[in-house]
Write a structure and sequence with these properties.
Elements lengths: L11 H25 L6 H10 L2 H16 L8 H29 L11 H11 L1 H67 L3 H20 L5 E3 H19 L3 E6 L8 E3 L4 H12 L6 E10 L2 E8 L15 H14 L4 E7 L2 E9 L8 H7 L5
Parallel strand pairs: 2-4
Antiparallel strand pairs: 1-3, 4-5, 5-7, 6-7
Helix pairs in contact: 1-2, 1-3, 2-4, 3-4, 3-6, 4-5, 4-6, 6-7, 6-10, 7-8, 8-9, 8-11
């Protein structure tokens, strides 16, 4: 017997409904058929006797289910399987026969003259006469117990599989997030070190403060794989504030997002690595700096995000560049969350580079008014 299995008895109301229906059907059929054939019996007593005859089986049903759990059908080759179930059939049949014999002896429903035979003889006749029907009833109940237990175990296995898959997905997403966060952290610390070497102390302090705020927000939301678009834009805004401390007037960015889609749910920290790539591979390589533009719109049930920078175009083989780890992680995270229901593209566009993401549109709740205000700032 599986140690992980636990016995769950059948619900009493289903058992009651089953045998009450069987009893009423059997009693009604017996009375109407016998009356239609012109027999003369005590119809009320006969109805009561036939209806109550099924009470022992109703009481035995939970016992049969428990025996089916302890000695399941899969163990039919073992001697203890046959010994336990055959013994149960004999005992149930014995009690059922005695119960029916008792009521027939007391009520004489068949109006026998001078009356029913002695109780012990009547009991014995009922026992032998009901042996075959008892075997059939017991086997049917045992099969029902087996099917019920199989379905319950299958449902539990499905629930457990779903739970494990969810845990695995969360673990994968957390692992990918941990890859992204140190990557961003190291780049930021290098930028702070550069500011210190240039003796731009105020800028370095501001960047450290902004980094602290950003990381605090990341830690607070580490258990949420998805956040509102407004919150994600706030994350990205904090990152760009850090980068502005480094690039000053060489970096400009705009955010163009309609108010009605700020409720949309997006993967947490999905924009930051895209913006980081735009700054690192686009803006940082130009003496005059450049601009980053973030746009979003809803169309055909999809949320479309775009991050554009006006830096140098992509060159062939960029996918094999070790520095493109951020894009690869974004793709893997999107696959973990959406399967095949997403799109991620990089393209040369309007004298720069644009990253496009499309995911299913799911509305949610904006976490804070501050997030919405920051997200809707058009230009910094």
């Amino acid at each position: 017997m599986d140690a992980n299995r636990t016995f769950e008895p059948p619900h009493w109301y289903w058992v009651l409904a089953l045998w009450l229906g069987v009893g009423l059907f059997d009693a009604s059929q017996t009375v109407f058929v016998m009356r239609a054939e012109g027999m003369h019996h005590n119809w009320t007593r006969l109805f009561i006797t036939n209806a109550l005859a099924w009470l022992p089986w109703m009481l035995a049903t939970p016992i049969i289910f428990r025996l089916g759990y302890r000695f399941p059908v899969g163990l039919w080759k073992r001697p203890n399987f046959w010994m336990s179930h055959l013994s149960a059939i004999a005992i149930i049949n014995l009690f059922a026969a005695g119960w029916v014999a008792l009521w027939e002896k007391m009520l004489n429903p068949f109006a026998l003259m001078p009356g029913p035979e002695a109780f012990d003889q009547l009991w014995l006749h009922k026992f032998y006469g009901g042996a075959l029907s008892s075997i059939i009833l017991y086997v049917l109940l045992l099969l029902i117990a087996h099917i019920s237990d199989t379905q319950r175990r299958f449902a539990m296995q499905q629930a457990e599989t779903a739970r494990l898959n969810e845990q695995l997905t969360k673990a994968q997403l957390n692992a990918l997030r941990r890859q992204i966060e140190p990557h961003f952290l190291f780049n930021t610390l290098n930028a702070i070190a550069g500011l210190v070497r240039e003796r731009r102390d105020d800028a370095a302090v501001n960047m450290i403060s902004s980094l602290s705020d950003f990381l605090r927000r990341v830690v607070n939301d580490s258990e949420h794989p998805q956040v509102s678009l407004a919150e994600e834009l706030e994350f990205t805004r904090k990152y760009l504030d850090i980068q502005k401390a480094r690039f000053a007037d060489r970096l400009e960015f705009t955010v163009e997002v309609p108010n009605e889609i700020l409720l949309a749910q997006v993967p947490s920290l999905i924009l930051q690595p895209l913006v980081e790539n735009a700054v690192k591979h686009g803006i940082a390589k130009r003496v005059q700096g450049g601009a980053v533009r973030i746009t979003a719109l809803q169309t055909n049930g999809m949320l479309r995000l775009a991050v554009y920078n006006d830096g140098p175009h992509l060159i062939g083989g960029w996918e094999d560049d070790p520095s493109s780890v951020g894009i690869r992680n974004v793709r893997t995270r999107l696959e973990s969350l959406y399967g095949k229901e997403f799109e991620l593209k990089l393209r040369n566009h309007l004298g720069g580079v644009e990253v496009l993401i499309s995911v299913p549109y799911v509305a949610g709740k904006v976490a804070s008014t501050e997030a919405e205000v920051l997200a809707m700032s058009e230009t910094n």
